[in-house]
């Protein structure tokens, strides 16, 4: 179990910083932090499920003590170099971090880019769950691009039964609407349908 030792705020001339000390049982236990880099240093990109963060937020509910995305990591265990900080996260069972709520322009830009990429990956994964592969030879014509579907074509079927080229319908679902281009039904993931013939 991860133990949280302390949280202390202190002010610096230009930025608001906080000291956070986290402890874990072993190096196999996750800190629950997805960390990204920029030319100016490291920052927290995303929080992940972990006992250490759950306990931290429970024991330190004040907003000034919260660990959250978009905090710059200034120092970990006295180390300021990015590689040395990563090494501390990999090998230490106790980390003393200085975090700042003020990120550089480079960190802000990288945070926005990574957040957009993560959002797009989640959207792609969600769309992938809506598609069921079928044989292209018997599918006919794709109603989006109007090309005939060949046997070697990647063809998918939505829960409503309509079939399309995989690339065409993925683009449609991600950029147009989350409905079937033909019948306008909202596709349902195979898991949610509970149909045993889809695997």
UniProtKB/TrEMBL annotation:
UniProt keyword annotations, A-Z: Metal-binding, Transferase, Zinc, Zinc-finger
Matching Pfam families: zf-RING_2 (PF13639)
Domain RING-type: 142-184
Transmembrane segments: none
Family matches, as Gene3D superfamilies: Zinc/RING finger domain, C3HC4 (zinc finger)
PROSITE patterns, per database record: ZF_RING_2
KW Zinc-finger (keyword) present: yes
InterPro entries reported in the protein's UniProt record: E3_ubiquitin-ligase_domain, Znf_RING, Znf_RING-CH, Znf_RING/FYVE/PHD
Superkingdom to which the source organism belongs: Eukaryota
A GO term for molecular function: transferase activity
Name of the featured protein: Probable E3 ubiquitin-protein ligase XERICO (RING-type E3 ubiquitin transferase XERICO)
Source organism per UniProt: Durusdinium trenchii
